Recover the amino acids of this structure.
C-alpha cells in the first residue's frame, strides 16, 4: 500500500515538473513574441521624448501643423496614409509604408527609436529625433529630424532621395507626392526609342542606350518620323534626306531618293509628294522601292473645289496627302485627303474614264464609298467603280452601319439600303458612333445603342444620354461609351453593368479644324490581346490611366506624374500598348513604362537628357 502511494506521488511530481517546464517555455516564447512585437510597434512621440530631443538641440516638428499631401506610390493612390508639408518646403513621407510597398526588408526597434533598412545591399540606419542618418556607414545630415506620428515613421524626403532607386516628385500647389521605386526594373524593359540629339536622329534602346542607327545629321527642326507596316519599319526625314529603317531581329536602314516633302499614305504603303511646277504627283512604294508618277489628280481636286463643285462650308480643304491608291484589272483608284486624314476626295477610273469623282465617305468596313454629284443626289459605289447606285437627292447623307445610309431632306430623314432599296422614314436620328477593328458599326437611334452584325442589327442598351462615341472590342462587348457635353461622361459597359470611367471633358485633347476637341482615338485604347481597355484622362493637372480588364468591372487606376496643360490646349502625350500587360506613355522629353503584371502597377520612368527630344517608340 505504501509502495502504491509512493509510485503515485512520483508520477504526480513528474507530471507537475513537466507542466512547470512547459509553462516556463510558453512564458519565454510569449515574452519573445511580445518583445518582437514591441520592437515593431511604431509609437508616437511622448512629451518626455520631445523634451529630451529639444535638450539635445533638435527641433521636433508638430505633425498637426503640417499640410497633408496625397501620396502616390508607383501611380497608385495610398489611402489612409498621407505625407506632410511643413513651412512650404519640408516634405515628410511615411517610411515604413513605402518600404513595405517596395518590398524592402526593415526593422523598427522601439526601445532605441531606430529603423534599419537594407536597400540594394546597402544598410540605412535612421534614428528618430536626430537630424542625420547613416547611409551605408556614412553619416548624412538632414534638414529635419524623423519623427514617429500617426502610427508611422515619418521622415524628410531627403532620406528616400538619398537611397538607391527611389524617385520622388512633389507638387506642393496641388498637394500631391509621387514616389517610385525601380529595383532592377529597367533591365527588363527592352524598347527601341527614336530621338533627335545634337541635330541627328538616333534609334537606341532603353535602358542601356545601345545605339542601333544614327542619321548623318540635319537640322533638328526638320525631323519627321512615320511608322509603317505595323511598326516593323519607319520613315525618317533628317534635314533634306529620307531614310527607311526596318526593325526586326536587327535594325537595317537605307537612304531613299524621294522628295524631302514626302508624307506617308494613310495605309502605310506609299510615300507621296507633289511637283507643283509640273502639276503632277509621285508615289514611292515602300515594299518594292519603286517611284511612280500618278498624274495631276491632286491639282484637279483643288481646281474642282475652287470652282465650287466641291465647296465646303468650313472653307477650302487642302488635299495634300494620299489616303489610298490602288490599280487593278481595268480600274484605278486615287483617294486624297488633308493633313488630319478627315476629308477625302476620290477619283475612280474604269478603262481610262473617271466614273466616280468627288468628296466621299467610306463605309465603316472600308468596302464602299458614299459621294454626291452636284444637283444629282447621293450615290454609293464599290471601291473599283462598279455597283454605282443612286440613293436620292438630299441635303446631307451619312452611313448607318455598312449597309444603310441616312438621308436628310427638306421633308425629313430617311433610311435607305446601300443598294438603293427599302427607303423608310426615320422617326429618330440615326448616327454611326464607332466601329470594331473588323468594321462592324455601332450606331444609335435616338438614345438607343445598336451594333451591326452582318446584315442584322443587335440592340445593346437604352442610354439615358446622347451618345457621341463608342469603342468596342467586338459586337458582344465590352464597350466604352462617351456621352455628349450635357452628361459629360465616359462609361464602361460590360453586360448589364455600367461603370463611370471619367468625364468626356477630361479626355486627352486634339486640334481638329482649328478647334480643340476630345481625342477619342488617343484616349481609349485596347491591349493587343483585346483583354484590357485603357481610358486616359487629365486629373488634377496630371495624366491618369483607368484600365478595365474584360473579365471585371472595377478599373485599375494609375496616375502618371506627367503634368498636363490646364488651359484648353493639345495634350502632348502618346500612349501605346506594347504587350498585353504593358503600356508605354511618352512626351517629347519624358517616358513611362507601366507594367500591369500581377495585382499592382510597376512604373519605370525616364527623362531624356538635355538636348535630346523623344520622337517615338518602335514596337
Amino acid at each position: 500500500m505504501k509502495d502504491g502511494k509512493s509510485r503515485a506521488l512520483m508520477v504526480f511530481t513528474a507530471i507537475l515538473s513537466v507542466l512547470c517546464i512547459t509553462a516556463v517555455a510558453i512564458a519565454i516564447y510569449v515574452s519573445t513574441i511580445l518583445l518582437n512585437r514591441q520592437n515593431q510597434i511604431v509609437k508616437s512621440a511622448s512629451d518626455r521624448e520631445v523634451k529630451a530631443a529639444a535638450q539635445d538641440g533638435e527641433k521636433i516638428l508638430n505633425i498637426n501643423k503640417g499640410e497633408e499631401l496625397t501620396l502616390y506610390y508607383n501611380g497608385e493612390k495610398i489611402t489612409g496614409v498621407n505625407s506632410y508639408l511643413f513651412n512650404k518646403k519640408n516634405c515628410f513621407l511615411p517610411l515604413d509604408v513605402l518600404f513595405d510597398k517596395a518590398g524592402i526588408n526593415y526593422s523598427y526597434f522601439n526601445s532605441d527609436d531606430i529603423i534599419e533598412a537594407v536597400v540594394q545591399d546597402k544598410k540605412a540606419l535612421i534614428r528618430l529625433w536626430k537630424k542625420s542618418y547613416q547611409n551605408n556607414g556614412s553619416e548624412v545630415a538632414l534638414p529635419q529630424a524623423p519623427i514617429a506620428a500617426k502610427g508611422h515613421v515619418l521622415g524628410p524626403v531627403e532620406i528616400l532621395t538619398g537611397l538607391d532607386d527611389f524617385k520622388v516628385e512633389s507638387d506642393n500647389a496641388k498637394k500631391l507626392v509621387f514616389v517610385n521605386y525601380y529595383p532592377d526594373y529597367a533591365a527588363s524593359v527592352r524598347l527601341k526609342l527614336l530621338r533627335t540629339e545634337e541635330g541627328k536622329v538616333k534609334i537606341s534602346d532603353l535602358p542601356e542606350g545601345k545605339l542601333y542607327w544614327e542619321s548623318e545629321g540635319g537640322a533638328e527642326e526638320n525631323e519627321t518620323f512615320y511608322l509603317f507596316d505595323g511598326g516593323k519599319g519607319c520613315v525618317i526625314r533628317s534635314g533634306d534626306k529620307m531614310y527607311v529603317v526596318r526593325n526586326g531581329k536587327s535594325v537595317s536602314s537605307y537612304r531613299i531618293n524621294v522628295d524631302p516633302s514626302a508624307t506617308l499614305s494613310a495605309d502605310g504603303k506609299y510615300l507621296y509628294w507633289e511637283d507643283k511646277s509640273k502639276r503632277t504627283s509621285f508615289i514611292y512604294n515602300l515594299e518594292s522601292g519603286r517611284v511612280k508618277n500618278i498624274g495631276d489628280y491632286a491639282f484637279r481636286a483643288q481646281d474642282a473645289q475652287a470652282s465650287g463643285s466641291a465647296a465646303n462650308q468650313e472653307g477650302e480643304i487642302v488635299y495634300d496627302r494620299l489616303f489610298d491608291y490602288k490599280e487593278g484589272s481595268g480600274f484605278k483608284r486615287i483617294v486624297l485627303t488633308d493633313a488630319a486624314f478627315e476629308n477625302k476626295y476620290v477619283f475612280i477610273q474604269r478603262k481610262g474614264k473617271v466614273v466616280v469623282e468627288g468628296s466621299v465617305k467610306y463605309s465603316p468596313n472600308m468596302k464602299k464609298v458614299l459621294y454626291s454629284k452636284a444637283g444629282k443626289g447621293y450615290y454609293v459605289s464599290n471601291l473599283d467603280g462598279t455597283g454605282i447606285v443612286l440613293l436620292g437627292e438630299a441635303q446631307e447623307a451619312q452611313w448607318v452601319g455598312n449597309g444603310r445610309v441616312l438621308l436628310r431632306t427638306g421633308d425629313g430623314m430617311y433610311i435607305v439600303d446601300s443598294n438603293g432599296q427599302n427607303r423608310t422614314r426615320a422617326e429618330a436620328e440615326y448616327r454611326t458612333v464607332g466601329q470594331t477593328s473588323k468594321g462592324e458599326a455601332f450606331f444609335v437611334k435616338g438614345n438607343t445603342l445598336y451594333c451591326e452584325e452582318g446584315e442584322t442589327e443587335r440592340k445593346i442598351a437604352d442610354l439615358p444620354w446622347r451618345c457621341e462615341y463608342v469603342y468596342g472590342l467586338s459586337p458582344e462587348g465590352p464597350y466604352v461609351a462617351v456621352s455628349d457635353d450635357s452628361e459629360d461622361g465616359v462609361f464602361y459597359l460590360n453586360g448589364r453593368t455600367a461603370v463611370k470611367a471619367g468625364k468626356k471633358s477630361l479626355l486627352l485633347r486634339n486640334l481638329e479644324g482649328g478647334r480643340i476637341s476630345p481625342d477619342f482615338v488617343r484616349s481609349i485604347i485596347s491591349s493587343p490581346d483585346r483583354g484590357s481597355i485603357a481610358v486616359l484622362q487629365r486629373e488634377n493637372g496630371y495624366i491618369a490611366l483607368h484600365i478595365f480588364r474584360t473579365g471585371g468591372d472595377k478599373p485599375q487606376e494609375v496616375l502618371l506624374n506627367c503634368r498636363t496643360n490646364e488651359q484648353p490646349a493639345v495634350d502632348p502625350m502618346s500612349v501605346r500598348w506594347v504587350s498585353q500587360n504593358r503600356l508605354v506613355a511618352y512626351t517629347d522629353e519624358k517616358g513611362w513604362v507601366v507594367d500591369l503584371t500581377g495585382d499592382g502597377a510597376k512604373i519605370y520612368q525616364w527623362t531624356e537628357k538635355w538636348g535630346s527630344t523623344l520622337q517615338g517608340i518602335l514596337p
